[in-house]
């Protein structure tokens, strides 16, 4: 799949680098099976230390609801290394989805920042109609996270990315299954983003890392790689916007004409 420059330039980083597959780099082999992000790559992927998140608006970060179990994060780190952040931004408050413990597909939360981050290029959230058209089996997703690189290779704290296949959705399209046994998410990637490139080269963020899917042999889930379950942001856009008071889809009419929107 040919890709244009990815959303990869931090304004406050000196060098602006092109996307992860610009012909100058080898394709990824394996987060697990992936590679460490170069300076400025995937700048909206952030870390709280315990979990990851995605800057989807200058004042709003999406993350997983289970990441709030022991209290919300106090701040998010921007940059390529969790412990050597380019910038740390304090959190005002976090809100987890009220149905998180009652039904599948509600492992999503958002955190409002105390100050707006206006110098990081935002990747728009995938809309409902875009998800219905493009988030289909066989599509390619990019997972980004600060977690471990494998069971015996902790390596947590460095931002990594990996290209994986989309297998489909479940739980009423509130969850998306991605990854393989060689490439995928691992411990510490919870709350982090999944990106999708549209046919016109535009990028969207569509998922929040939730958990690993059960193994096919009905045994316990693999702790790393295998199929990972990402909560669909599109399925919870109305809740996020109403609860936060922030419009994440200001160009919804252009991107998703009313006649093309899912019921």
TrEMBL record:
The lineage of its organism: Bacteria, Pseudomonadati, Myxococcota, Polyangia, Polyangiales. It is an enzyme of class 3 (hydrolase). The keyword Hydrolase applies. The keyword Disulfide bond applies. Gene3D superfamilies: Trypsin-like serine proteases (2.40.10.10). Keywords: Disulfide bond, Hydrolase. This is Trypsin-like serine protease. Its EC number is 3.4.21.-. InterPro entries: Peptidase_S1_PA, Peptidase_S1_PA_chymotrypsin, Peptidase_S1A, Trypsin_dom. Residues 31-245 form the Peptidase S1 domain. One of its GO terms (molecular function) is hydrolase activity. Coiled coil: none annotated. It comes from Polyangium sorediatum.
């Amino acid at each position: 799949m040919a890709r244009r420059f990815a959303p990869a330039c931090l304004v406050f980083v000196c060098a602006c680098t092109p996307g992860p597959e610009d012909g100058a780099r080898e394709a990824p082999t394996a987060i697990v099976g992936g590679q460490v992000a170069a300076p400025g790559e995937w700048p909206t992927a952030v870390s709280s230390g315990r979990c990851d998140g995605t800057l989807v608006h200058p004042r709003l970060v999406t993350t997983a609801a289970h990441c709030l179990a022991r209290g919300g994060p106090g701040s998010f780190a921007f940059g390529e290394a969790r412990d050597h952040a380019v910038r740390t931004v304090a959190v005002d408050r976090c809100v987890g989805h009220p149905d998180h413990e009652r039904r599948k597909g509600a492992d999503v939360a958002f955190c409002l920042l105390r100050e707006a981050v206006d110098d990081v290029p935002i990747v728009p959230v995938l809309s409902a109609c875009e998800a219905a058209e493009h988030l289909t089996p066989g599509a390619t997703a990019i997972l980004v996270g600060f977690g471990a690189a494998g069971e015996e290779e902790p390596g947590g704290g460095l931002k990594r990315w990996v290209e994986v296949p989309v297998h489909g959705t479940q739980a009423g399209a509130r969850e998306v299954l991605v990854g393989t046994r060689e490439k995928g998410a691992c411990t510490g990637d919870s709350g982090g983003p999944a990106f999708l490139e549209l046919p016109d080269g535009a990028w969207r963020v569509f998922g929040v890392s939730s958990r690993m899917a059960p193994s096919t042999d009905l045994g316990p889930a693999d702790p790393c790689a295998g199929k990972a379950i990402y909560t669909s942001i599109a399925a919870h856009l109305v809740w996020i916007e109403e609860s936060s008071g922030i419009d994440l889809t200001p160009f919804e009419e252009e991107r998703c004409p009313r006649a093309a929107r899912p019921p």
